[in-house]
Design goal:
The protein has about 350 residues and is an alpha+beta fold. It has helices spanning about 10-15, 20-35, 75-80, 85-100, 120-135, 195-205, 225, 235-245, 255-260, 285-290, 295-300, 320-325; strands at about 40, 50, 60-70, 105-115, 140-145, 155-170, 185-190, 215, 220, 245-250, 270-275, 305-315, 330-340, 345-350. Strands 10-12-7-13-11-14 form a 6-stranded mixed beta sheet. Strands 3-6-4-5 form a 4-stranded mixed beta sheet, covered by helices on one side. It starts with 8 loop residues before the first helix and ends with a strand. Its main location: cytoplasm.
């Protein structure tokens, strides 16, 4: 996972420490090993990860792929010196895009670019990625750590990940299954997840907020810790839901907010009518809006406002869907319905 394998004094003089890269690989090995699946081929070449596909298990398998990063939430992790959860955010962004079409996440690869390889920090980051992969039953099959002196400051780093999933061709979920009368189920988010952090950082800077301060409005929690709350990973919960009830579509609520993302799973002749009186967003959203003087419309167009994933289900399946998710530890509720329309999302009412 590290760039280079042999020490070079000339390379070191240029700012690349290959010995540190090798040590980072050694430190991360146990984390990577904790994400294994039976299909993982361990006698790999060392340059590419291998994953054995059991073709007898599927009738007409379709592979799904997704790639994403964490965005500027990483900058808060760096300011807080907290690097063990940002990897969970990375996995969540990737696998929860995969599961939207009904795909089971199989494996993920990561890419870490940094100004200087600090082995212990890299290991912390990978520990978080591994924790997210375990939550999604997804193998961390390989990756790369690249040292970019001169292009990045020594303490800076960025993350990206790519994942692959699998779904039967006749089980692919999406707009073609959605129709008038369907019910929209909300799954609670753990906070802003990994979206809107450029605005969050602007609020912090302009309001002069200290990330280490305890905030009464947030239950006296430390602001930075609240903002670094990891993304909730829904992949296995969505798969369990689709296995038990008639699910027509999912929508991963990321950048752009609820309306923009839910719109992506609607056919052209159907609208979603969402009742915002059915839930109260986590306190962090109200705090950010107040500190930054952000209008409600801007909040709704930037943040998930407490809904990290939505499921569109057959109306008769709604109660069972909510019950199943609650049993799995995911707060869920009916938040809307589908009506004749033009593929738009209507947000009715105000949050309590």
């Amino acid at each position: 996972m590290a760039e280079g394998s042999n020490s070079s004094s000339a390379y070191a003089a240029a700012g690349v420490d290959t010995a540190a890269g090798d040590r980072a690989v050694d430190l991360m090995k146990r984390h990577v090993a904790s994400t294994g699946r039976p299909e993982l081929v361990t006698e790999a070449s060392g340059f590419a990860g291998l994953f054995r596909l059991d073709t007898a298990k599927y009738r007409a398998p379709v592979l799904a792929t997704s790639t994403d990063g964490v965005g500027t939430k990483i900058m808060l992790a760096q300011r807080m010196g907290r690097h063990d959860t940002i990897g969970i955010d990375l996995v969540g962004m990737v696998v929860d895009d995969l599961v939207v079409c009904g795909a089971e996440p199989l494996y993920l690869t990561d890419y870490i670019a940094c100004g200087s390889v600090i082995p212990e920090r890299i290991a912390e980051i990978v520990a978080g990625i591994a924790a997210g992969c375990r939550q999604a039953n997804c193998a961390l099959i390989g990756g790369e750590t690249a040292e970019h002196p001169g292009a990045m400051a020594p303490d800076d780093y960025d993350l990206a990940g790519a994942g692959t999933g699998i779904v039967e061709a006749d089980a692919v979920l999406g707009p073609d299954r959605v129709g008038v009368g369907d019910t929209v189920i909300a799954m609670a988010s753990s906070g802003p997840h990994s979206n809107g952090y450029s605005l969050i950082r602007r609020v912090i800077d302009q309001a002069g907020l200290d990330l280490t301060d305890q905030v009464p409005e947030l239950g006296d929690a430390v602001l930075g810790e609240v903002l670094l709350t990891p993304t909730r990973i829904y992949a296995l919960d969505c798969l369990a839901l689709a296995a038990e009830v008639e699910v027509h579509a999912f929508a991963h609520i990321t950048g752009g907010g609820l309306a923009a993302n839910l719109r992506r799973c609607l056919p052209a002749e159907v609208d979603a009518v969402i009742d915002r009186t059915t839930w109260s967003p986590p306190a962090v959203f109200g705090y950010l809006a107040e500190q930054g003087g952000i209008a409600a419309a801007d909040m709704a167009a930037t943040f998930n406002m407490g809904v990290g994933m939505a499921a569109v289900v057959a109306p008769e399946a709604a109660d069972r869907a909510v019950r199943l998710l609650e049993e799995r530890g995911v707060p869920a509720w009916v938040m809307g319905r589908l009506t004749p329309g033009t593929g738009q999302v209507q947000l009715d009412g105000d949050h309590p």
